[in-house]
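Lecture 7 notes: from sequence to structure.
We start with the chain below.
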Amino acid sequence: MAWYRRDKAAVTEALRRGERPDLATTMASGPLDELVALHEELGIFAILDEIEVYRRRTGIADELLLRTLATLPFVEQASLSGASEVLFREPAVLLQLGWAPVHIRQGSNGRHRHPDGRQEESLPCHHDTLRDALRRVGESAWLLAQAAGVKALYQRQMVRGKVYAIDGSGLGNDLRLVALVCVSATRPIIVAWRLLSGTGFGERPRSGGDALVD
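Predicted structure tokens for the same chain:
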């Protein structure tokens, strides 16, 4: 699979030189398509394909479920169920992730969680199936995947700032979202994050520059 950057000037110049285009496509791609393409270009999906899980699920490949989960943050919905419902209405994006047309139309397999059978919002799979995929990935596997993803960003010089800050936002009484933020770029960029227990920072989070930025 090869990704092509949309560059009208370059295409026009190539046509003037008599070069035939490799492909022709519509201008209908939006931010979601481009973000998925960026994940592919950075090798994020390849990293997810190598993640070890506690046990394999029958019926749907874990690699496909993890690719789908990695795309949900691109959707403006706070909940996993709401984000998956929006994503599942984008068949072109689902095809890019690896879902087959028959899965998009009929669902991934015969399993469902509704007494009346498979529902429209459960195509190609139910959001509980995605949630279950998260449960089957260990913490150490997520840390390795995030480190590899951050490394890819720096290798391609997508994070160019040199000044960083640690931000810790409380979530309830005993959880804290700790983020490593590059604050000297054009805009603040969250480089890595950890969900830690406790009301204070306590132990220094491993998302510091030494573990993920080198």
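Points to note: The beta strands are 164-171, 175-182, 189-197. The two ends are 30 Å apart (CA to CA).
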